[in-house]
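User: Hey, my collaborator sent me this sequence without any context and asked if I could get a structure. I don't really work with proteins. Can you help?
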Amino acid sequence: MATQYKEDPEHKLVELVVDGKVTKEDFDHIATQMEAFIASHGKIKVLEDIRKFSGFELPVLWDGIKFDIQHLKDISHCAVVSDMGWVGPFSKAFGVFISCKIRTFPHDKIEEARQWLLEK
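Assistant: No problem. I've predicted the 3D structure and written it out in structure-token form, which is a compact way to encode the shape of the chain:
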């Protein structure tokens, strides 16, 4: 799997790691766990650690859009951590369309990203 998923119930925080190509299996695994976490904890925060992104399988695009629309109001804050130059501007542009507060951080500031989420 090119993804990892971790929950911190105490802080209502989900951490996702992307390191390669995201498959339908990866997405389904994460979506199922995240939906259960949201059902148990209400509004959550997300840290996305994008180490390497080699694209995704085509079905992930549609499933991702449906997931985002369905859970638009279930995520209060999102920290996007990556050294890939296009990720920051893309995250900021996407942030215009959602109610979630988004901040981007370089990978060497991942602890600062976690702290930002813990303070929210």
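In plain terms: Residues 31 and 61 are 13 Å apart (CA to CA). You can pass these tokens on to your collaborator as they are.
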